[in-house]
C-alpha cells in the first residue's frame, strides 16, 4: 500500500512538473508584437507557473506563418490572414486604422483619394500641390507583406493597379517605414495605427476625403480604411496556447488593446 501511494505521488509530481515547465513561443508581424508582450506579462503575473515567450523582433506575417508551420512558433502573429493553409487556424484579434501618414511638422492635414494615387504614382512630386510650401515629396514603401498597401488597393479604385513611383524608397519592415515618417519631414507613407503609431508621436495620419483617421470614425463606418490583425496556430490551440488566447478575448485584455489604439474583434 505504501509503495502504491509513493508511486502515485511520483506520478502527480511528474505531472505538476510538466505543467510548470509548459511554455509557448509567440512571434510574427510587428503590428501585434507590443500588444502581445503586454498581454503575456499580465497573464504570467496571474499564472506564474506558465511561460509565454514573445519574440520582440518583428518577422512579418510571412515569418509568423512559416514559424508556426515549421514548429518554431506556437502562435503566429499576422496582419494578412493565411490563404490556402488548411492546417492553420486563424483567429482575429483586432482592427487598426490604415491611412496616409506625414510628419507632424507638415502643414498638410487632409488628402483626397485622387491625391493619394497621384502622390504614390509620382504624378504629384511637390508638397506645394498638397497645399504646403514648395518641397520634394519622398514616398517610402515596404518591399513586401504590406497589408496597408493591400487595403488601399482594395478600397481606392485608382490605387487598385497603381505602380508606385520609381523614386520611392523601399524598406523591409513596417517599423522602418514608421520611423522614416516619424523622423523626416519630407516623407509620406501608408501607415497603420496601434502601438506603432502611439510610440511615434511625430506621425500625423491625414484625414481622407475629409474623414479623420480615428477609432470612432472606423467604428461608425465613416472612415473605411483599416486592417485586421490576428493569430494563427497549427490546428486548434491546446493547453497553454488555448488558455492564453482565451485570456486575450477577455474584457480585461480588450481594454489593453483599446488603450493601444486597436478595436478588439474577438
Give the SSE map.
Blueprint: H1 2-20, E1 23-28, H2 30-46, E2 51-54, H3 60-69, E3 75-78, E4 88-103, E5 110-111, H4 113-121, E6 138-142, H5 147-155, E7 169-171, H6 174-183, E8 187-192, H7 195-198, E9 203-205, E10 207-208, H8 215-220, E11 226-234, H9 239-248, H10 251-259, E12 263-264
Parallel strand pairs: 1-2, 1-3, 5-10, 6-7, 6-8
Antiparallel strand pairs: 3-11, 4-8, 4-9, 4-11, 4-12
In short:
With 266 residues, this protein is an alpha/beta fold. Helices cover 39% and strands 23% of the residues. The strands form 2 sheets. Strands 1, 2, 3, 4, 6, 7, 8, 9, 11 and 12 form a 10-stranded mixed beta sheet that branches. Strands 5-10 form a two-stranded parallel ribbon.
